[in-house]
Design brief:
Chain lengths: 248, 376
């Protein structure tokens, strides 16, 4: 509420002007791009990782589980610094990138990579406990009825976890759009080029341009409210299934 | 489809779940794998299905080694204890699943699949529930859907893992009868796992009794009950009284008193245990080959009267069961003394004697006697 009040303090005109400012628009666009790549990528990674961990026995399973939790335990800023170390001006992967003429740090790919890393656990974490609890009877039944691996996954495994998956995507998306720390380190804060919405809010705020800052922030707040609303809706409708996935 | 299980071994870590298991299942047979939990019966079933792999040994269907054939190509119908129905599909979709995932070339037309599903639902007496979802069905109905789903692919072998384990007693009884009839109709070779001896005796043509990863006995229902191969089998098939006794030649002595003469030719003498069912003890007169007991308590449980007695010689407790209308019932009064006759019993080497030996030799049956009741 306060955010919206501050955003509209100087009237609707200022609000619209702040949001339609080219730099703000570019920040919104970049945020949508980053989330638009990171969420589908993590959807694929998360489902694959959860499937492997919950339904199969293999060596290194504990290691993989730890790896999935890594982004939760590492500070996003540190994660960003590791990217800089790897791909930055004097990074390890620098020679390779130079020959291919790819810019990662202080450019869009870096932001996307940082976002993917930070939001990696959300979907997998949501799915693993539920899939483990469901066991493998359904899959084995499908296989014994002649289904192949893909059919089993598509017709049996996926429908069994669809609500938890949607929930995970929602959380993942919210975090992807709101991510500050890791993105801040790798972005370089170039206005109109590598500024995402949270970074843009910070810049405007530091310039004492409160109304504009809050106007952009209000968009993020709106997103948060939407996420919360969807989340409550999912919990109300499919609460029992989600609750199962939460207790572990 | 004849199933041949040859020398199967299976370990889970240090635990040996199956040890050198050999088994032949005839085509069209309905066979029960029976044993206490941890005896390896479910593991054996899963290995036959291809849900699990043996460390060594082979499984063959109709003479073909199944080692290289994955689960989805074995054409088995597997019914899980907890049904494993696909929750997001209707009953009809569940039953059709096996046909709708066939490769495009072999897949029947949609309406043919629907017809077949309805036919199967008819067979399992759920014709009007095709549009329901699994969570709208009772446990017994779900189990029947699971069966219909398994039968849809026209399996060569039907495997059921504790199919009635999660159902209440009355539904279980109905389903057993129904499964028996279904088997007569379809004739599919069927193996089911159970820990309930009554279920195995009622349903199966033959029973495989498993003990700690080995097969203790494979026999027809009657023979398992009448001729248990080991004390374990005897004990597992029903309630048991164990009476320590000694054997000299063919003469069986209980506390110095001759109680019976066994019919076998050469018998290993010494300490033995007499295994006798509570229902195979009868009251008798003092003069005959009876053992004296004291009646401690008498209790009526449904159609049976159950008396707790102790041997007069050494206070060992025994249980006697009689049909409640039996003419001996009035003789069992609390505190009374009477003589019991062992009508049918098995004699095994005594457990102590076996324990004192270092061999892992199994106690084998020494003798089995059945006394014909004299006509009045």
């Amino acid at each position: 509420m306060l955010v919206f009040a501050e955003a509209l303090r100087n009237g609707l005109g200022t609000y619209v002007k702040a949001i339609t400012d080219p730099d703000a628009l570019s920040a919104i666009k970049l945020t949508l791009i980053a989330a638009g790549i990171a969420v589908p990528a993590n959807l694929v990674f998360g489902v694959a990782a959860a499937w492997a961990i919950a339904k199969f026995e293999f060596r290194g399973k504990t290691f993989l589980t730890t790896l999935i939790d890594l982004p939760f335990s590492v500070s996003p800023v540190v994660a960003g610094l590791i990217y800089v170390l790897m791909f930055g001006a004097s990074g390890w992967a620098r020679p390779l990138l130079d020959t291919a003429d790819i810019q990662i740090i202080f450019a869009v790919p870096g932001i996307v990579l940082a976002t993917i890393f930070v939001t990696f656990p959300f979907i997998a974490r949501e799915l693993i406990p539920l899939m483990q609890q469901q066991g493998t009877d359904d899959e084995q039944a499908a296989l014994s009825l002649g289904a192949n691996g893909w059919q089993t996954f598509w017709y049996v495994t996926l429908p069994n976890v669809k609500w938890a998956l949607l929930y995970g995507v929602l959380l993942c998306n919210a975090r992807a759009m709101g991510e500050f720390g890791a993105v801040s380190v790798v972005s370089g804060h170039i206005r109109g080029q590598t500024n995402t919405m949270p970074l843009h809010v910070e810049i405007l705020y530091n310039e004492y341009n409160f109304a504009a800052s809050f106007a952009v922030a209000s968009l993020l707040a709106g997103l948060a409210l939407l996420t919360l609303a969807l989340k409550s809706f999912l919990e109300a409708r499919h609460g029992s299934e989600l609750a199962r996935s939460q207790k572990h | 489809m004849e199933i041949l299980v040859n020398n199967i071994n299976k370990h889970f870590g240090a635990f040996s779940a199956l040890k050198n298991v050999d088994l032949t299942i005839r085509s069209g047979e309905l066979i029960a794998l029976l044993g206490p939990s941890g005896s390896g019966k479910t593991t054996l079933l899963r290995i036959i299905a291809g849900l699990d792999y043996a460390d060594t040994g082979t499984v063959s269907f109709g003479g073909v080694d199944m080692a290289g054939t994955p689960l989805r190509e074995r054409q088995i119908g597997f019914v899980f204890q907890h049904y494993a129905l696909f929750k997001h599909m209707t009953v009809r979709e569940n039953v059709s699943f096996g046909l709708s995932v066939l490769p495009r070339g072999k897949r029947p037309q949609k309406w043919l699949i629907a017809d077949r599903a309805d036919e199967l639902l008819e067979l399992v007496q759920l014709a009007d529930l095709g549009d329901r979802y699994p969570h709208q069905l009772s446990g017994g109905q779900r189990q029947r859907v699971a069966l219909a789903r398994a039968l849809a692919i026209e399996p060569k072998v039907l495997l059921l893992d504790e199919p009635f384990g999660a159902l209440d007693a009355k539904v279980r009884k109905e389903l057993r009868q129904w499964l028996r009839e279904l088997h007569l109709q379809t004739g599919v070779t069927t193996i089911f796992v159970t820990h309930d001896q009554e279920e195995a005796l009622e349903l199966a043509d033959r029973v495989v009794i498993m003990e700690k990863g080995t097969i203790a006995q494979v026999d027809t229902v009657d023979r398992v009950y009448e001729h248990p191969a080991s004390p374990f089998v005897f004990d597992f098939m029903g309630s048991t009284n164990i009476i320590p006794a000694s054997l000299h030649g063919r003469e069986l002595y209980l506390d110095g008193k001759l109680v019976a003469t066994l019919s076998g030719s050469i018998l290993p003498g010494g300490a033995v245990d007499i295994y006798v069912r509570p229902g195979d003890l009868r009251a008798t007169g003092e003069h005959s080959e009876g053992v004296e007991v004291m009646v401690k308590s008498v209790q009526r449980t449904g159609p049976l009267v159950r008396a707790s007695v102790t041997l007069a010689s050494n206070d060992q407790p025994l249980i006697v069961e009689l049909p409640h209308l039996h003419h001996d019932v009035p003789r069992f009064r609390e505190g009374s003394r009477l003589y019991l006759r062992l009508m049918q019993y098995s004699v095994f080497p005594s457990a102590d004697r076996l324990a004192s030996r270092d061999s892992v030799e199994k106690p084998t049956l020494i003798g089995r006697e059945r006394v014909r009741e004299a006509l009045p």
